[in-house]
Amino acid sequence: MLACLKGHKDVIRMLLHRYKPDLEVLNNIVFGDVNSSQQTFFNVSVLWVATSINNFDIVKLLVEHGANVNHRTKTNSTPLRGACYNGNVEMARYLIEHGADAHLAKENNDTNLMVSVCHKHLNMVTYLVDELHCDINECDINGRSALYDAVTCGSVEITEFLLKHGARNFRAVVDQMSPLMWAAERRRSDLVDVISPYCSLLERIEAQELLASTFICGNRDDHALDQSFKHFCQAFELRTIHNLLKATKSTNNAIFDNRHECQTTEQLKEIRSNTDLLYIEALLVRERLLGLTNGEYRYSLCYRGAMLADKGQYDKAVAYWIYELNLCQQYSIPIDSKHLRRFASLFSGIYPCLQTTRILLQSGASVNTFDAIRNTPLHIIASSRSANHDSILNLLCDAGAHLDFANTFGETPIDLATMPNIQQQLKKKIRIRKAVLSDLPRMLQIMDEALETPTIDDEMEQRLERWLVKFNNNLQFIFYVAEVDHGYLVGWCRGGQAIESHKIVDHETYDCEIHNIFLCKQYQHRGIGYELWKIVWNDILVSFQPKNFIVWSVDKQQTHQFYSSLGGVPKEKRKFDEECTLTAFVWHDLRLYETTNFLILK
């Protein structure tokens, strides 16, 4: 078998003479490259392989040594079929002369003539018909003859040959389509012209109508519409000459706008400039000629739905697809995963939807709801690869969406943003800038809120005076604030040189520290706090060039996790007064942050 596959004729001759091997030992063979489609053939003999690889010398050698010329594989394929597949008339004639049965068909009654037609081997077709008298009109299990295969492969020459030798234009059992209808369905007007003279007048008219419908259904260019109109007119001309009226349905269908087929050329001309009405006309024709259960007709319904979805007419698209699903249900036609993918594709085109988002928010939907991995609506819209969702993003932000909400993986919406315009829009939603004097009252309020201590208005003036000293000491302190749209302050951070009571920890002196970092409750997530930290950290490193760094953290798990995530190492707990216990986090590997997510205004 291996020698045969490699084409080693001399090796095979030696093996046959010296060892007389059993030529009917069966094997399973895989044909095709690893990088292309592969096919496995089961229970094949060495002679079958020789014919399949089209090696006539090895075929003769094996036949001379008694190989069975009528061996059948698991699918009833014979050596003669291999010769027909390759179009090798000499090999086929040799096998016939040595007892091969030309009428043995593969499973599903796939004949040798059919495989020769499919591969456009006119010489082999001529040999099988003229010399072996194979039945031209023999059909496979689906009721399709060799003429049907000639149309499928698109061979005008073989189609003409079969017709001249008595091929008939009968309908297949499986889909009730004749070769003439199949030629029209494939938009092969040349094959329609070849087959039509062998058919009845009504068949010729209906072929022109079906051909006209196919130029509309599945095409979007103007040339196709012109071709469709031409063939519709030819059909009407024949009907008028021979007084053959259409047998149309009297019932109405809402998806076709309750229209009926045109009965005259004048009616057709009235809708020529209306693509939608022409499409409906084509679908009505296809329904009449192909039938409700025909796969090609149902596909054209789905294709029309897809075209409407592309135009944003989603309600009409769904109507077409539901109609097709109802046909499947009504006639017990299996529904596969393609139907589900079609609807999934449609919904992905509909959503995200600005109007739906607005209605949901107005109805009380939470703008900061999240899924199983804590992605909020803002995460979803930010991660969209469409650049046309600015309005939805603005709507969510105006409704109070948290720009800094972190999902399970610590990602904020801006971390997931892929489109440049979305990234820029999110950056503009939060600004980090150097604090100014007028920010002090709000900064103190945010601090009180974070520490859960009430802000006493009467004491605010005194507190402001005490803080003015710190605020104006630019040599020691650096202040930054974060604000959202309309200048609303949501957080702040202060840092600089370590104060005396903080700088020594575990017998080591630390140069600089971040003294305070506070955020409003609704913004207490990693996003803004992290960005504030990075900006103040970078500014301290540039301004003071410290060797090490320290932060005294309040004794809260969330706060400890925050500093640990930034690379801080907890070093010591210290009680500063009866109500205040702080933990020292230290850093020794001091590096600047290269990027920040939010817009920085210094």
Q: How would you characterize the overall build of this protein?
A:
- It is a single chain.
- With 602 residues, the chain is of the alpha+beta class.
- Among the domains are: 354-429, Ankyrin repeat-containing domain (Serine Threonine Protein Phosphatase 5, Tetratricopeptide repeat, Alpha Horseshoe), CATH 1.25.40.20; 431-601, Aminopeptidase, CATH 3.40.630.30.
- The chain is 50% helix and 12% strand.
- The protein has 28 helices and 12 strands.
- It has an 8-stranded mixed β-sheet, sandwiched between helices.
- A hairpin with a 2-residue loop joins strand 10 (569-577) and strand 11.
- The longest helix has 21 residues, at 222-242.
- The chain is elongated, with a radius of gyration of 40 Å.
- It starts with a helix and ends with a strand.
- The mean pLDDT is 88.
Rg value: 40 Å
Amino-to-carboxy terminus distance: 80 Å
Using the coordinates shown, work out and report the CATH topology of the domain at 431-601.
Aminopeptidase
Q: CATH superfamily assignment of the domain at 431-601?
A: Gcn5-related N-acetyltransferase (GNAT)
Q: State the helicity in percent bands.
A: 40-55%
Shape: elongated
In percent terms, what proportion of residues is strand?
A: 5-15%
Unreliable runs, pLDDT <50, ≥5 residues?
none
**Biggest β-sheet description:** 8 strands, mixed
Number of helices: 28
Structural class: alpha+beta
CATH top level assignment of the domain at 431-601: Alpha Beta
Question: Which key features would you list for this structure?
Answer:
28 helices; Serine Threonine Protein Phosphatase 5, Tetratricopeptide repeat; 602 residues; 12% strand; alpha+beta; Aminopeptidase; elongated; single chain
